[in-house]
C-alpha cells in the first residue's frame, strides 16, 4: 500500500520517519519527481533499484538540504563553490570526488570514487530534506525505461504498491532532469538539462567538455532508450499523418502543444506530461514537431531522441 502524503507538516514528518526506517518515499523536485531513500542505508538504496527494476550498476544522485551536507559527502573545490553559489538550490548535479568515510551507501555511487550531488529548489523537497537532515538518494520516480514523472499521478502510474509513500506537491516546474556536470577532472557535461552548457561556461569562465558523442556510455541516463513511452515516436514531423497522436511546438493544430508561443522553458515543463498523456491515448505513433536546437531545446531534443530510440 502506497501512502498518499500531503504538504501538511504532519505528513512531511511522516515522510522523514519513513526514510529513517529505511522506506521509499517519492517526492516532488523542480525537475521531476524523485524516488527517495536514506543514502546511507544499503538496504533502503537497494529497495530503490528493486522498485524501479533498475539495473544496479547505475549510480544515483544524492540530494541535500545544505552546503554543509554536500561538503561532508564530497571533496569540495573552488569550482564546486562557484557553481553551488550560482545554481543551488536548483537543477544542477555536480559529480565530485567522494570524501573518505562519507555517510553514503556504496550502492549510491555504484562503487565509484565519485558522487553526484544536488540541492533541489522545490520548497517541498527542501522541507523534506531539512526534516530528514541527511542525504537522500533519488533517481526519477518511474519504473526503469519509462517516462520521468512530473506529477504525483505519473509516479503512481508505474510505482503504486511498490513504494511506501508519495508526497503530492503539484507539477514539477522545470520538467527535465537536472544538468549533470562532472568536476572530477576537466568540467564535463554528463547530461544536458535545465541549466544550459552556455550558462555553466559563463559561471566557470572556462570551456565545458561534452563526452556523449565521444565516449562509451558512462551515465545510464545516456542509454539510448532510457526515456521511453509505449508508443513509437516520430520526430521532426513536418506534417501530421492520419491516426497519429500529435505533439506540436508553436502555432499549429495538434493534440497537445509543448508551447504555442515557442517558449522553450514552457516546452520543457510540458514535455513529459504531454508524452504521458499522448501515450495514454493508445495510438501507435506520437508525431512530434521540430523543436529548435538551442538553449533548453538541446536538452528537450536529447530526451526526445532517447524516447524515440529503438528498444
Ligand atoms: O533532476 C534530477 O536529477 C532527478 C531528480 C529526482 O533530482 N534525478 C535523476 O536521477 O534524474 P537519475 O537516477 O534518474 O539519474 C541520475 C544520473 C544517472 O544517469 C547517473 O548515472 C548519473 O546521474 N550519476 C549519478 N552519480 C554519478 C557519478 N558518480 N558519476 C557519473 N554519473 C553519475
Ligand atoms: Mg530517470
What top-tier CATH class of the largest domain fits best? Alpha Beta
CATH architecture of the largest domain: Alpha-Beta Complex
CATH topology of the largest domain: DHBP synthase
Whole-number total of structural domains: 2
Shape: globular
The amount of helix comes to: 25-40%
Percentage of β-strand residues: 15-25%
* Estimated structural class: alpha/beta
> How many H/I helical runs?
10
Strand count, sense and closure of the main sheet? 11 strands, mixed
Give the low-pLDDT segments: none
Tell me the layout of helices and strands:
Blueprint: E1 3-5, H1 9-20, E2 25-27, E3 34-38, H2 42-52, E4 61-63, H3 67-73, H4 78-87, E5 92-97, H5 106-109, E6 114-118, H6 123-132, E7 136-137, H7 152-159, E8 165-167, E9 179-182, E10 188-191, H8 197-204, E11 209-210, E12 232-234, E13 245-248, E14 256-257, H9 264-280, E15 285-288, H10 296-308
Parallel strand pairs: 1-8, 2-8, 4-6, 5-9, 10-11, 12-15, 13-14, 13-15
Antiparallel strand pairs: 2-3, 3-7, 4-7, 5-6, 9-10
Bound molecules: threonylcarbamoyladenylate and magnesium ion (MG).
Give an account of the 3D structure.
This protein has 311 residues and is an alpha/beta fold. The protein folds into two domains: 220 residues, Alpha-Beta Complex (DHBP synthase), CATH 3.90.870; 77 residues, Threonylcarbamoyl-AMP synthase, C-terminal domain (Rossmann fold, 3-Layer(aba) Sandwich). Helices cover 32% and strands 17% of the residues. It contains ten helices and 15 strands. The strands form two sheets. Strands 1-8-2-3-7-4-6-5-9-10-11 form an eleven-stranded mixed β-sheet, with helices on both faces. A four-stranded parallel β-sheet has the order 12-15-13-14, with helices on one face. α8 links the parallel β10 and β11. α1 crosses α6 and α9 packs parallel to α10. The chain is globular, with a radius of gyration of 19 Å. The model has no long low-confidence stretch (mean pLDDT 91). The protein binds threonylcarbamoyladenylate and magnesium ion. The site of threonylcarbamoyladenylate has 27 residues, from β5 and β6.
